[in-house]
Structure prediction request, 475 residues.
Amino acid sequence: MTARGVVVAGAGSGSGKTLVTMALLWGLAQRGFSVHPFKCGPDFIDPRHHEWIARIPSGNLDLHFSEPSGLRERFDRQVAGSSGGVVEGVMGLFDGLARGSSTWDIARALELPVILVLSAQGMAETLAALVRGIVLHREGPHFLGVIATRTGSDRHRKLIADALAAEGLPASSGASCPGTKPCLFPSAIWGLCAPGEQGTEEAVRLRQALSCAADALDWSRILSAFSPPSVPAPEFRESGEECTDFTRAWRTRNTTPSHSSSRVRRFLRLGVALDEAFWFYYPENWELFEKCGIDIVFFSPLRDRRLPPDCDGLYLGGGYPERFSRELALNRKMIEEVRQFCASGRPVYAECGGLLYLTEGPLQEEAGEESRLAGIFPLRYSMGDRLKRLGYAEVTAGKGFFSEAPGSVRGHLFHNSRLSGGGTDLQGAFLHTSDGTSEGFAMNGVVASYLHLFFPSNPLWGEALARALEKGRND
Prediction:
């Protein structure tokens, strides 16, 4: 079978999977291998870090959103012409096994070997016992090797390697180098900061740490899982805008496949908010939209003064607008542009952070133009210290421009904000299939909710959006 890549899995969150994935992407590129990054499960943060290194969008692999055959088809299509894929798992290797959506299930569906990443902090030979338990827990994917993170010295690493060898377990493929552990990924609220957000100096330091970690890996073993290079790997610069612009992979992505003969020629334009405040998106959504005849045009609610010209609709995704609420509010020209667009009746779709942008603003701020956001909905938001909701969701259409979309569509919820206020003219945008409760709001041409939808879970919803854009253009 042709070598097609690896799955990076751990015993749980915090083991160092993202660090190892980025080190693999970096090291493979330095060795001339062009590979495609992927992330298992619903996640918008780790993929952006993948893209910062790989320079191409990181794909989503989630068996809640796709059947195994569809997952494999998407993986094969995206890695075609490259040396393979680097797939970062979600949580622990077997988490989600009961519902058939674990990293183990994905590795088995894709027939990819697993690199097991375990934190060695506070242990040495005991790591071999953990590896044995994980390897023997289920028959299935081949284990290519073990990477121990948070090792303290060469002697520490040798103890671990010797213990694995003595037990006949998958060999150590290396370890993170000493000194790379502290502050590699500064946290921002419920996740990581956007790559490069700390500035050029910090970005360069992180890349140097990744290079150090990559040099510690056993590349003879790792490269056996990838096909020989057939296309050039991306080049890297250690300073300048490329170090801090994490959106570059999206802005320069190759859209050629969507312009094939299978694409519907509608010539519709969808303005998509993209900057430090709005960056929680599934690139698979854009791919589906483009196949439906929708061109994606990016704009920044933080810096741009005007919306892109000739937009038929807007897509305001999630992110961290609450961290930039004042800067967003002070951009009065963009606020007014969005208000006028919403008043026109043309479709505006907002998810989570996009919903917050369409409220009157944060509850704790005094009312006034200097803190007021778009104010499309008579709501204010407040941030809490704990998650309000977390998990998968499946919904059918409620009110709004998706009202005629057939069947159900899947997505997930992940937020710690709370809304207050409301009005009698706010109608539910979606209905949960689990209990029939409503989700989100629909008013005039605006549909907004906390849901992050994965539109390819029901491609007909992409067509429904295209029809709404077309109708808005013609009205």
